[in-house]
Amino acid sequence: MTAAIGRGLVLVSLFCASAGAVAAFAAFLRKSSQLTSIAVRAAYGFAASMILANLWMVAALLRNDFSISYVAQVGSVDLPTWVKVVSLWSSLEGSILFWGFVLAIYIAVATRSLNESHGPARPAAIGVWLLCATFFGFLIAGPAQPFGAVANVPTDGPGPNPLLQNHVLMAIHPPFLYGGYVGMTIPFGLALAALLTGRLSPTLLGTIRTSLLAPWTFLTCAVVLGGWWAYEVLGWGGYWAWDPVENASLLPWLTATAALHSAILTERRGVLKGWTMSLVISSFLLTILGTFMTRSGIFNSVHSFTQSAIGPTILVFLGIATLASVVLLAVRVDLLKPDGELDRGASRDTAFLAQNLLLVLFTFTVLIGTVFPLIVEAARNVQMSVGRPYFDRMTIPIGALLLFVMGVGPALPWGSTSRDELKRRLLPPLGLGLVALALALAFGVRTPWTLITLFFAGYAAHVTLFEALRPARTRMKFRTDGWRKAFSQDLFGPGLRRLAAYVAHAGAVTAFIAIAVSSTRATSLERSLQQGETMKLGRYSLTFEGIEHTEEAHRTSTIARIGVKKDGIELAPLRPMMNQYQNQRESIGTPDVRTGLSEDLYLSVMNIDEASGTIGILALINPLVSWLWIATVVMAIGGLMALFSSMRVGHAAPATPNFETAPVR
After folding, report:
1. For residues 198-210, b (16+ Cβ closer than 10 Å) or e, as one string?
2. Alpha carbon distances (Å) from 137 to 49, 130, 146, 355, 475
3. How many helices and strands in the chain, by DSSP H and E?
């Protein structure tokens, strides 16, 4: 009976989505407010029923209702409560159900925010959103079927993948990732609506940009949270290995970042309308590609799910969505005529364009390296792999150029200017760039690309700080405002959006520095230690003091107690461990990390032999890794500031006439 209720809620959501999509497109074609109202109610109906279906599944997981197939697959009586909740997205079928939950929230919020001022774009966008909802509703009701009934109900289940029980980050990373992936549906629908109507009004452009900021912020956090999870759980000592599924989350982030910058040019200059819409559409399609890569089982990755009928179904949807988008772009993009033109000199216009091209080149480079092995295998039946050397060799120069443009671009004025003005703007930041380079050399950095990156980072940091504070400094100079009053006008006034961009840039510059240093300056040592034996790594002395055991309901842990001294000063011991889970043959290691602002001490147990009293241990000193996590928070704050600023401006904007009086081309 409980499984039937869940299936019923999913079927109701599928009916609401499909009926609402039909009503929305009929409203667009007939310019009918009545049909638009029906589509709006259907969107809310989809949201309500899909959210209830997810809550019903969570309740079933918490009460160990093994009569539901998904609970029997991933549930267990002995699991902690938080693991039972995150089990909702721990396996393939539940992850698709959770996708529907996030999509329901996005559609409900976006539908409520989209008013008559958007004209005929309103029903067109709702129609696209509900078409996507129809597909995922079908996927949940058909190939996934998380609410299948179990004939012989077991008394217990195996629990989720042990790797997903090993760290609390699994309660955080997937929701952020889904917030980014699923959220791309909203700007995608708005971009297609602009093409369908043949108009990209300032109101619609602002809405697209606002709707892109939320998933971009989620995806920014998700990409790094995935790296943090790998760093804290997998035990190899790094946070990024160009894994295909890692790449899948990076690709839409790159195009979404390009779209946000391109939208600024469109807003200010009235140009690149079709290019901006193409980037928004590409961001959505890349999230679907990433979903296919994760759920098809064709990639060997710790992040991917097993093979099932869900993967091919998603591939069909990706093909249809891509074909429809390409056709619509080809037929309608000429209607989005530019209202101005780009300045072709040394200006911020050209810097924005260069940044866009570099981001797209970065995307293409990663995409080719990720999917090329599959193309070769499909064409020639030969298995091959593209490893880290390719990605490092190809992307590091592009990343350095991006950092260079990030520094130079904001220093340039909008439009053409004199040579003396260019010197005045571009020469002063060289000072901090040279300081950063000198410090790097003083600390022993000799890797060319690291030195180049740090020089560009110093340059960009100067420009970012100077430009962020320039309006406040101008007010203080000409209006005798105090510092607090001058700066508050940016923080609480119309300058918030501009300030948000520089906050995000500050986070990005910090991330570049952290990645460059941590990836080239790490030191490591792998040793086998007897109890009481000490090994040295840098300024640290590590002593194997003994083995401890802990018993939990869902696992047994064997812990190596490692005494730590730094420069002879005793620190708190570290406890890397091996965990044995029920229904799992091999033990799963969990490293222990002492995190600091300058460096991390990272210990991972490779094996434990209690009979002989020995352990195999991997020890690393990873510099500046914590600054990558800090940089992500700063970038997310910048994204949230920009989102708040855009929403505030959007609410303050006056309404325009009803769409029934607006022209449709």
Report:
1. bbbbebbbbbbbb
2. 11, 10, 12, 38, 54
3. 21, 10
Share of the chain above pLDDT 70, in %: 94
CB atoms within 10 A of CB 180: 27
Neighbours of 51 (CB within 10 A): 18
Q: At what angle are helices 310-332 and 92-113 packed, to 10 degrees?
A: 30
**What Rg do the C-alpha atoms of the chain give, in angstroms?**
27
Asked whether the whole model's pTM tops 0.85, one would answer yes
In the chain, the amino acid numbered 236 is W
Least Cα distance to 454 among 504, 398, 404 occurs for: 404
What value does the mean pLDDT of the chain take? 90
DSSP state of 610: T
- Going from the C-alpha of 74 to that of each of 8, 91, 153, 359, 583, the distances in angstroms are 22, 7, 14, 39, 12
* Helix or strand run (H / E) with residue 605: strand 599-609
pLDDT, position 658 = 37
- pLDDT-above-90 percentage for the chain: 74
pLDDT of residue 610: 87
Cβ–Cβ under 8 Å, residues 629 and 588 = no
Q: How far is CA 519 from the centre of its chain?
A: 21
Q: Report yes or no: 373 and 319 within 8 Å, Cβ to Cβ.
A: no
Residue 542, CA atoms < 13 Å, CB-side half-sphere: 32
- At 660, the amino acid letter reads E
208 phi/psi in degrees, rounded to 5: -60, -45
Three-state DSSP state, 424:
helix
Helix 2-30 and helix 92-113, axial crossing angle in degrees, nearest 10:
40
- Report whether pLDDT(376) > 90: no
Instruction: Give me the mean pLDDT over the 261-269 stretch.
Output: 93
CA atoms within 13 A on the CB side of 663: 6
Mean pLDDT, range 600-620, rounded to an integer: 93
At 166, which helix (H) or strand (E)? none
Largest CA distance in the chain: 84
pLDDT of residue 662: 35
Cβ–Cβ under 8 Å, residues 267 and 259: no
Contacts of 409 (CB under 8 A, 6+ apart): 348, 351, 352, 354, 355
What pLDDT, on a 0 to 100 scale, did the predictor assign at position 307?
53
Tokens of 294: 């994760």
Candidates 216, 179, 228; CA nearest to 627 is 228
Asked whether the predicted pLDDT for residue 22 surpasses 70, the reply is yes
The more confidently predicted of residues 490 and 646 is 646
